[in-house]
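Q: Got a minute? One more chain.
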Amino acid sequence: MVSQHIDDPASIAKRFRLIRRAYGALQHNSAPMSQSEFARLCGIGVAAWNNAETGDNRIGLDNAMALRRITGATLDYVFCGDIAAMPHSLMIEIEKLDNEEPPRGSHAQQRKNRSILPSGFDRRSALKMGRRAP
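A: Always. Here it is, folded:
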């Protein structure tokens, strides 16, 4: 098992997913809140949120503050994993969801693994096979 540090992109991305799912559950949504719905609610670009939640990029301070204003999620939790100062209801929901969520690799790493082609293959051959060239 690979040990992850609390501030590596995959750990931060997991916390973004947990915040979105927990906030949606606390709003009594019957279906999980989508990334685009949540991003719009927070005033964060949909692509920026998706990249943050998949671990491809981190969000900037302005977006992190917008997330904090809407959800109450502290920056200490978002970037360092310190859940102590979170609103109690959000903290309980996040802990519940965290116990249910299986570990995931970073989206960027998954994409990179899919794009590896055998030597001798060019982009055109890759496209014929339905795979992306590196």
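A: Helices lie at 9-26, 35-42, 46-54, 61-71, 75-80, 88-100, 107-114, 123-129.
Q: Perfect, thanks.
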